[in-house]
Write a structure and sequence with these properties.
- The protein is an all-alpha fold.
- The protein is 80% helix and 0% strand.
- The two termini are 35 Å apart.
- It comes from Streptomyces ortus.
């Protein structure tokens, strides 16, 4: 099972490390290895959240996620995206941007750093919306009940997540835009942050809205099909949801790719603290992205999220922390180790809470239904 799921990741790791040695010797080998670990540590929460979405998709679309999706993740976000950012921010052509990335690493890093406020605002707002929509939803199973119960009540207010996100974005643009109070160019920086953040918010609403719409339609169609099969199976009446499945799966796949893109922002930016070499960066982050993809599928196939019900909560709190960190980095530098550790600690905490819950349920009633809110057990917080 492990080899089947992680086989491609192992193969890509071997090829990537060999390529690194051929390109720059053992120094490059070490850089690629460090970047791989950095990407995995920063994106573990990404795998947990992805698994919650991927488990709703068919085996075919899970395979697409591992094949086409990984090409988008590795070549799109870890190689092409940094070059596109430089091309846009410096008003360069694609060929010029590639030449700059390969032949003038210092200037390339400088341009990417200049573009960081817009990148962080876009990614921060997208991830913030994911977090807010999660904590404002009323769920049967609650992890931090003392916090989630009142927030679920507040969540009944329409568009509350978007309103709070816009308030946070306005605060960020006014007070966290780089040196906003020191020079006349502050208005431009604030405007850039504001526009990029709104773009991130719109992207979430459009992609997430379409995904949710088709997912709801799919569930309705499946319910009608089940009822039709039960009531009129003898007459051969069936309701086909084939076309709708395709649309629902496509938009959920699109949502996953945008989600992965937002998660990768911190990894791409953080990689510049380790190397300016775009090739080594792509190798290291690409290897890490492969493991995140494989881990996502592994969590789905093992049913880990069903067994450890607080994992998804921990991952979403890690998303909220990452969103806050991205917005803070518009003005202040935050060490990547801190970013990675926050996510790991939150997920480890939620995992341990899940283990304690399972043990308590087994002790209280061996056959208790873990999805029944009547069997909800406190996580100890």
């Amino acid at each position: 099972m492990v080899l089947k799921t992680f086989g491609w990741s192992f193969a890509v790791t071997a090829l990537g490390l060999v390529a690194a040695v051929l390109i720059g010797g053992w120094t490059a080998f070490g850089i690629v290895l460090i970047l791989s670990i950095l990407e995995i540590s920063l994106s573990f929460d990404n795998a947990v959240v992805n698994a919650g979405i991927l488990k709703k998709m068919s085996a075919f679309w899970q395979k697409i996620f591992l094949t086409v999706g990984i090409l988008i993740a590795v070549f799109g976000m870890r190689l092409v995206f940094p070059v596109v950012i430089v091309a846009i921010s410096a008003s360069l052509g694609p060929i010029e941007a590639v030449d700059l990335a390969l032949n003038d690493a210092d200037r390339y890093q400088e341009l990417v750093t200049d573009a960081h406020p817009s990148i962080a605002a876009f990614g921060g707002m997208f991830l913030l919306m994911i977090f807010l929509d999660f904590i404002f939803e009323d769920r049967d199973i609650k992890w931090l009940g003392w916090l989630e119960r009142p927030l679920a009540k507040l969540g009944k207010v329409d568009m509350l997540s978007a309103c709070i996100a816009l308030i946070i974005l306005l605060f960020t643009a006014l007070f966290l835009a780089p040196q906003a109070h020191l020079h006349a160019g502050s208005a431009d920086k604030a405007e850039t942050v504001l526009l990029s953040g709104v773009a991130g918010l719109i992207t979430y609403l459009v992609v997430g809205g379409l995904s949710g719409f088709f997912e709801n339609r799919l569930e309705e169609a499946e319910e009608r099909e089940h009822e039709a099969e039960e009531e009129a199976k003898a007459k051969g009446k069936e309701v086909s949801a084939g076309a709708l499945v395709g649309k629902a799966a496509f938009f959920m796949f699109l949502y996953l790719e945008v989600l992965d893109a937002s998660f990768s922002f911190d990894g791409v930016i953080g990689a510049f603290a380790i190397t300016n070499d775009i090739v080594l960066m792509a190798l290291g982050l690409g290897i890490g992205a492969m493991y995140v993809r494989s881990l996502t599928v592994y969590l789905v196939r093992q049913g880990t999220l069903d067994d450890y019900v607080y994992l998804e909560h921990g991952a979403h709190y890690a998303i909220g922390a990452l969103a806050a960190i991205l917005l803070v980095t518009i003005r202040f530098e935050v060490n990547e180790i801190i970013t990675g550790l926050i996510g790991v600690v939150l997920i480890a905490w939620s995992f341990w809470s899940s283990v304690r819950r399972n043990r308590a349920l087994e002790a209280a009633e061996g056959k208790a239904d873990p999805s029944d809110d009547k069997t909800e057990v406190s996580s100890g917080v």
